[in-house]
Amino acid sequence: MAPFDRPDDLLRLEDLRVAHDGRDVLGPLTLDITARRTGIVGRNGSGKTTLARVVAGLQAPTAGRVTLSGIDPAKDRRGALDRVGILFQNPDHQIIFPTVEEEITFGLRQQGRSKAEAAAAVTAILTRFDKLHWRAAATHSLSQGQKQLVCLMAVLVMGPRWIVLDEPFSGLDIATRLQLMRHMARIEARILMISHDPESFAGYDRVIWLEGGALREDGPAAPVLARFTAQMRQWGDADDLSHLAG
Amino acid sequence: MISLTSPVETWAHRWPAGLKLGLMSLATVALFATEDPAILGASAVGVALLYASAGTRFARAGARQLWPLWPFLVLIALWHGLTGQVAAGVALTLRLLAAVALANFVTMTTRLSAMIEVAAVLLAPFRRLGLSTRALEISIALVIRFTPAIARKGGLLSEAWRARSRRRPGWQIVMSLAALAIDDADHVADALKARGGVLPIPDTDQKG
User: Fold this and answer.
1) Given the DSSP bridges, would you call strands A11-20 and A23-33 parallel, antiparallel or unpaired?
2) Beta strands A190-194 and A162-166: pairing type?
3) A107 contacts in B (CB within 8 Å)?
């Protein structure tokens, strides 16, 4: 695992802008993130997932620049592999292989590790999570929470300095969510997490609130979350569900 | 028709993937070299015994995987019955059944990563010419992995149809299924990209 406090572990967004089909969905956004735990909140369609994809390098910004621990994650894919991992909202969209072992091995082989090194790393990560008995399990037979944990292990085993979590708890029951949160709390890497649930940000340093693709608030977690929750309740009484995007 | 690796551990799981694929290729060539219904019948029985040797649970799962073959077999039987070539029809049916069942047996007893390794070894000459074969290796894996996934999506769509209709769904869900498959392909592309895409693996450890 990479030593935690690297001076170059900085996520810098400079005048970042993303447009889909000519319509701006995110930005312009200028931010520096170094916090160990950063939360991203906002309503559906506020650009949260787009931001996650841009940070993970899955999508290049339309304009502006992203620098993640010294690299451009969309251009330098090899460099991005060691720096950032992403957990999708739906683990079924993430799991490629039929067994847990193969799924976790894939990323390691992609990093150029030998078969023996990869096998040792798989044992290490399964042991760390006390899931050694999952090794040969069929991924499609796992529960949603178990699948999400496999995805988390597959990302962690690659030793990224940043982990992007895109609503990792949606569709999970409360007990499963709490267990996953406990696993996540132990992660050494910096985390950027999107969530709708203010409770899932326990122990977070900073929260960024996006609205309509722009920055609405940014600051220490507790006060931003309090104002976010109050605003959501107020909007909950209104009927903007009837507005169609145009 | 093609299933994933069976979680029921059998003797055949422990055989090397290359050996199984090699034997399967030889057997398939042999099946196509003969027209004798007796030999083809014996081959089909032999494949059935292969399944039986792996245990009841495994054999049942295998039979379920092969069940979708029946419309093809009926079609062949009808055609040959109508044209009067009964012996040829029987031979074709037995050959098809034995060959597909054998291929399914190998898939059920071989890990996907082992299959990819065999593909990587076979494609080695192309790498020596400087071509990256990683994309092809991963494509093979994806076809095997996503065929059952798309079949399941089809099942979900027909349930969504039946929930609001008294009739069985027909061709109407084909477009939706195609759209879902494209959507799935997008997600898989993202999942692959998030973990390095089809970056070529250094050749030294690919042979290992």
Assistant:
1) antiparallel
2) parallel
3) 195-196
Provide ipTM, 2 decimals: 0.78
Q: How far is B45 from chain A (nearest CA, A)?
A: 30
Interface contact A110-B201, CB threshold 8 A? yes
Chain A residues touching B194 at Cβ < 8 A: 56, 58, 85-86, 94
* B207 interfaces chain A, CB cutoff of 8 Å: no
Residue A177 vs residues A59, A161, B67, B193: alpha-carbon distances, Å: 28, 23, 40, 27
User: Looking at CA atoms only, how far is residue B91 from chain A in angstroms?
Assistant: 35
Which residues have CB under 8 Å from A201's CB, separation 6+? A37, A39, A193, A195, A207, A221, A225
Q: Which of the residue ranges A131-135, A238-242, B104-108 would you say has the lowest mean pLDDT? A: A238-242
A107 to chain B, any CB pair closer than 8 A? The answer is: yes
Min Cα distance B95 → chain A (Å) is 30
Q: How far apart are CA A95 and CA B4, in angstroms?
A: 14
pLDDT per residue as tens digits for the range B138-177: 887 788 778 778 888 888 888 888 888 888 777 778 888 8
**Interchain pair A58, B190: CB under 8 A:** yes
Helix (H), strand (E) at residue B18: helix B17-33
Which is higher by pLDDT, A245 or A79? A79
3-state secondary structure of A202: coil
Instruction: Please give the model's pTM, rounded to 2 decimal places.
Output: 0.79
pLDDT score of B197 more than 90: no
In chain A, the largest separation of any two C-alpha atoms, in whole Å, equals 58
